[in-house]
Amino acid sequence: RVAVLSRKRVLVNDTLDAVAATDDDWIHDYFHGPRGRAAHDATSRAAGPFGKPEQH
Predict the structure, then answer these.
(1) Are 6 and 26 in contact (CB under 8 A)?
(2) pLDDT tens digits, residue range 12-52?
(3) What pLDDT does 54 receive?
(4) pTM of this prediction?
(5) Distance between CA 48 and CA 21 in Å, rounded?
(6) Where exactly are the structural domains of the chain?
(7) Most buried one in 15, 20, 53, 56, CB count within 10 A?
(8) Can you say whether the dihedral through the CA atoms of 15, 20, 25, 27 is positive or negative?
(9) What is the 3-state secondary structure (H, E, C) of 13-55?
(10) What kind and span of H or E run contains 11?
(11) Can you give the pLDDT at residue 5?
(12) How far is 8 from 38, CA to CA, in rounded Å?
C-alpha cells in the first residue's frame, strides 16, 4: 500500500497501481516519472508468480 500526503492531508491511500492512476497532476507526474517507475519495477521484481512477495 502507498499513501500520498500533500496539501496537509492524505490524498490517496491504495495500491501502487491505483495511486499511479489517480487523477491528480502532482501524483501523476511523480508516479510516472523516474522515481515512480523505479518503485513499480521494484515491486514487480519482488512479486512471486501469484503477485505476492516471495518468502525468503
Answers:
(1) yes
(2) 999 988 998 999 999 988 888 888 778 778 877 766 655 55
(3) 55
(4) 0.60
(5) 23
(6) 2-46
(7) 20
(8) positive
(9) EECHHHHHCCCCHHHHHHHCCHHHHHHHHHHHHHECCCCCECC
(10) strand 9-14
(11) 94
(12) 26
